[in-house]
Sequence to fold (257 residues):
Amino acid sequence: MRDTTVLITGGAKGLGRLFSEALARSGARVFITGRDQAALDEAVETLGASGLVIDAVQADVVDLAAMRDVVARIVATGGGLDVLINNAVESGPIGPTSIVDFDAWWHAQLVNLGGPLIAAQAALAVMNPVGRGRIINLVSPAGLHRWPYATAYSVSKAALVKLTENLAAELRDTDIAVLGYNPGLVDAGLTRAGMELAAHSDDPWLMRIGRWAAKARDEGGFTSVDVAVGTLVRLARGDADSLSGRVVNAEDDIDSL
Ligand SMILES: NC(=O)c1ccc[n+]([C@@H]2O[C@H](COP(=O)([O-])OP(=O)(O)OC[C@H]3O[C@@H](n4cnc5c(N)ncnc54)[C@H](OP(=O)(O)O)[C@@H]3O)[C@@H](O)[C@H]2O)c1
Fold:
């Protein structure tokens, strides 16, 4: 992926970190964002120690001015922005929807749906003039199926699927592809954190989701990290551009879709 510049939001931790490392290994110029400066520094340092150069910029994905600055900084370092990966996420509150805290629920919509829109607007400001680029929105089984007691996450990801479809339709006459990417359940990031939290919690709703995820893992229902990362790299290098507007699953055979 030489000569390809990739911006990945939330790239210092969890799956984003694994994606960033794989993309850097494949030769891409990788920029990561997040709110946690210490985590960004640690990622740059640790990956740098194994010879992988990535750049990190602190930015909250719901801050349009900050995201525009990130893109301007990328452009200023030479070249343009080829790929945006909307990866940053907030898992949102867990519990019965009838009593869930509205502010926490709504904040998850802001980060998980508003964030990708804001990052896409910032990226499209440089992609549209050249008529070329790629936006990959991380979705989830939670956005494709029911996910009771985690409705903030589920609803935000379902809406992100629709944002993907509509944006792709609006960009149909350009070479800008917009894809949803469902990595499946992976033993990393928020899924692993959720299982660990549930194992040490007496919150019945957290325990319910934790038990369900652990059962899925034990029954072989998880996607391997290698497959989740490998398919993302294929999407980032353009192998699925002809599927713009659709959701690609990690285990899909892209060549036969
Ligand atoms: N793990 C799975 O099994 C799984 C399954 C299906 C889909 N996914 C999707 O994969 C993506 C990555 O998930 P993950 O499991 O790696 O999650 P994670 O471990 O919770 O990581 C979330 C990332 O988002 C960043 N972030 C959160 N709020 C932010 C904000 N307001 N502005 C900027 N960055 C923010 C965090 O960094 P800071 O804390 O530094 O801000 C962190 O790097 C998500 O879109 C998720 O829906 C994951």
User: Anything to note?
Assistant: Residues 234 and 240 are 7 Å apart (CA to CA). The chain has one domain: 5-183+224-256. The first helix runs from residue 14 to 25. The domain at 5-183+224-256 is CATH 3.40.50.720 (Rossmann fold).
